[in-house]
Write a structure and sequence with these properties.
The protein is mainly beta and 256 residues long. The protein is 6% helix and 54% strand.
Length: 256
């Protein structure tokens, strides 16, 4: 289990993601790269010479050979010259494998993410703006949230997330936002509530921006007649991701 923590100025965010090794991870070359072809019959397990592979070529890590990762490419259409050269040996009817140095994996390539993936985490709301009465309210609210994230370019540069949350919170009551029939409130008090929220997040590399909205429902609404019972609120925040995302990508279906 791995945790990605968002340090938010106004809106707290923690996202939990499963972490695993690089095996079965899909990646893309950053630029033209010279690679040794994997040769099972060779003592060194690699070809004597290297083959230059195009930048942006997509591959999947399938194993380890000492200081190398064993990979295969899946970026070309069947029948094309590049398909025979990099992906599948048509003559021998065998998958082609290559070796890439482990120490250079993050320099030579970038991880490919699923376009749509589940997301879940915890939100903490330090304040809320209530349009019903125009007030900004310092508060404490904790929400467990789940939803989806959308990665249109399949890199970690632009990521959009939408999550629904529910959790406990506290709200402030006073004589201005309540109607107490028996005895008006002379002093401000805090009461427990349950919060339902919708949270929209945008991430650019490691910087994240969030907008959240929701409703609060106090348990003693029949006693205090709170004016904001079930009425919408808004908040927003800016954060920084301080941990690497270890989400796993699905294996490509185009590989033979």
């Amino acid at each position: 289990m791995k945790t990605k923590i968002m340090l938010l100025l106004l809106l707290g965010w923690v996202e939990i993601i499963l972490g695993q090794s690089l095996i079965n991870e899909s990646r893309m070359l950053n630029g033209p790269t010279d690679l040794h072809q994997y040769e099972a019959s060779s003592t060194s397990k690699k070809s004597a010479s290297t083959i230059s592979v195009y930048g942006n070529s997509k591959f999947t890590i399938v194993g380890e050979e000492g200081e190398y990762y064993k990979i295969y490419f899946w970026d070309w259409e069947k029948g094309s010259p590049d398909y025979n050269k990099y992906n599948f040996n048509i003559t021998t009817d065998a998958q082609r494998y290559f070796l890439i140095e482990k120490k250079l994996i993050d320099v030579s390539s970038v991880k490919i993410y699923n376009r749509i993936a589940p997301a879940w985490g915890t939100f903490v709301y330090p304040f809320k703006w209530r349009p019903n009465d125009g007030t900004f309210e310092p508060t404490f609210a904790l929400a467990i949230a789940g939803g989806v994230k959308f990665n249109p370019w399949r890199t970690n540069k632009h990521v959009f997330s939408a999550l629904f949350g529910v959790g406990p919170s506290s709200v402030s009551l006073d004589k201005y936002n309540t109607t107490v029939l028996e005895k008006p409130l002379d002093n401000k008090i805090s009461v427990a509530a349950v919060t339902f929220s919708l949270n929209l997040m945008y991430q650019y590399e490691f910087v994240q921006f969030g907008v959240s909205g929701g409703v609060d429902n106090i348990f003693d609404s029949n006693i205090y007649d709170w004016k904001n019972q079930g009425k919408p609120w808004l908040t927003f925040g800016v954060g920084i991701s301080i941990f690497k995302d270890n989400e796993k990508t699905a294996k490509p279906t185009s590989n033979p």
